[in-house]
Structure formats: C-alpha cells, structure tokens
C-alpha cells in the first residue's frame, strides 16, 4: 500500500475540544487546553506518523501515512482585531486542505421548534448556540475537500442522545463520515485515524519523520505561560493578555554541570494586558499571582525543554491592544520568527 500524506485541519466552535483532540492524537501536549473558550489563537501544526496496519480477514488495514494536523482557533463572530486575526487563522488553515475534521460538542443542546417564541433562559441559550452553530457551518459549506463530522465529548452524554444529534448534523452537510469520540478519554480515536488515512491522497512526507511541529520551542513556552494565566486568573484578564518572549537563551551545552545539575535556559517574557487594573490582578498582592504563574509555567517548561529554566516575567499595559491591528499582527509567531531571523542576518 503506497504511503499517504496530507494536511488535516480541525475546526469547530470555541471549547469543542480541538486542542484536546490534537494532543490526544499526538500523544503529547502541543496545544494548550483550558475550560475557557477562545484559548487557541493561532493555527498549530502537529505532525503525526501513522504506521502501516496490515489487512487481515476482519480488518481492512491502512497504509502508513503522515498526517499534518492543524489545530485552529474556535469559530466565532469577530468583535476585535484579535478576533479577526483568529478567524483569518481559520481561513488560512482551510486553504488547500486534504481533509477537515469538523468537531462538535455533543453536550450542546439542539434547537427546538418553539424556541423562536419561547422566552425561557434555556430556550434563549439554545437559540444562541444554534446561531453559533450556523456561523460555524458557513465555514464548512465553503469547503471543497471531504469533511468528517466528529462528535466529541461522548463520555458526557447518554448513547441514546447521540442519534438525534447525528440526524441533525448529517442533514446540514454531506459529511464523508460521522465519528463519535471522546478526545479527553481517548475513545473512538482509532476509527477516526482509519477514516482520516482513508481520505488522504498518496504522497510523500511534508515534514521529517521525527518532527512534531513547525512551531519553535520559544513560542510553545509563550503558550504555556498564557495557559497558566488563563487557568489562574478570572474575569476578563485571560482574554486581555498576550505573552511575548523577549529573551530566550539556550544553554551552550546540554551536558550536566560539574555538580550534576541540568543546564539552564534563560527566558524573559512580557505579559501584555489592556488596563492598569488587569496589571494589578496579574501581579497580585505582594506579587503572589505573578509568582504562581511563573512557578507553574516554569515546571512545565522545564519538562518540555529538558533543562532547568530561569524565568522572568514582566507585566506591561498596552491600552486596548486587542483592537490594534499592528500589535495583533506583531503577536503572530510566524512574523516574530521572521524578525528574529532578519536580526540574526544583520548581526
Ligand atoms: N468531557 C469531555 N471534555 C472534553 C473533551 N474534550 C475536551 N474537553 C474539555 O473541553 C474544554 C475545551 O477543550 P479545548 O481542547 O481547549 O477546546 P478547543 O476547541 O481547543 O477550544 P478553543 O481554543 O476555545 O477553540 C476543556 O475543559 C477540555 O478538557 C471530551 O472528550 N470530553
């Protein structure tokens, strides 16, 4: 069976579980995950090698493949420049794709016929949810590649509740297949992989065999810091923060020091927020909050990098940065990478 390869974008509403699915398929944490919607801000490539599975009497098997998974920001109506940038990331992730996985959260209630006239809070919530589904479907309808409907979070609903969901979603688009999964509990992932490989064209690898992502470690580090902010702070603070790595010094050698300690990576990061009040929350009483963010982030960064980490965090205010097109553009890690490369050439 000839080798297959292709780009597979994972799209869906905020909080559908896209990043959880990416991490589950890769068997490694690449994208940050929180219970807060709109956690993912850029598209993230994760490279998955799928070994050949030989055909048997009971199993159709599949060829070996390289799947380039693309995690994307949750589809939502944009209100700020940041939102617009996030939706542009989704559009970019949908260009020239071989396959799209449209992820749906099965815990969302389906609309009912009398919702239009029903004024109860539940009916209003269902109506809002249906409007958000409609908006997400506008992205799906434009696609010319095959789309798999992936019903996620099946661990949280009764099996009998899945049938009406399948009927509802299947009536909205000609999906190539419907696959119920739990990204969190890693259920249904084998079937999802089988169906994914089946849809890919024959072709060579896009990335070297052992490369997990095209995103350099310094940007993964920035995301880990942002994840801790999202998890540790409340109200509007998580949405109003951005993390920029200002200094990133890798150790000259990965060898242990003479006293048997791991080498040190020195990192300085700026946490941008929009108001002085948010800065005060991020720093906390006697600097307690910033310390907690730093300590929890450092531990995870150390295990990612395999070194000790010296992490300095600074909080800076940039009024209404989410509405500044140039600031939002500068946050794009691909652009930051180009600037770093240009500076190195100058040097
Ligand atoms: N019960 C259950 N929860 C899940 C499952 N998959 C994801 N979640 C939870 O759903 C929440 C959102 O997960 P994410 O992976 O961040 O969702 P996302 O679609 O990437 O979110 P955005 O970045 O906002 O677009 C987290 O609290 C996850 O733990 C699942 O299969 N079952």
Question: Outline of this structure?
Answer:
Keywords: Cell membrane, Cytoplasm, GTP-binding, Membrane, Nucleotide-binding, Ribosome biogenesis, RNA-binding, rRNA-binding. This protein has 347 residues and is an alpha/beta fold.
Q: Helical content, roughly?
A: 25-40%
Which H/E pattern describes the elements?
EHEEHEHEHEHHEEHHEHH
Instruction: Please name the fourth-level CATH homologous superfamily of the largest domain.
Output: P-loop containing nucleotide triphosphate hydrolases
Span between termini: 49 Å
Top-tier CATH class of the largest domain: Alpha Beta
Q: Number of helical segments?
A: 10
Total strands: the figure is 9
* Quaternary organization: single chain
Query: What is bound: which ligands?
Result: guanosine-5'-triphosphate
Judging from the principal axes of the Cα atoms, what is the shape? globular
Question: Runs with pLDDT <50, length 5+?
Answer: none
Strand order of the largest sheet: 2-3-1-4-5-6
Strand composition percent:
15-25%
The CATH topology of the largest domain is: Rossmann fold
Number of domains: 2
The average pLDDT value, as a whole number, equals 92
Radius of gyration: 22 Å
CATH architecture of the largest domain: 3-Layer(aba) Sandwich
Largest sheet: 6 strands, mixed
Protein name: GTPase Era
Binding site for GTP: 12-19, 71-75, 152-155
Domain Era-type G: 4-202
Pfam family, one: MMR_HSR1
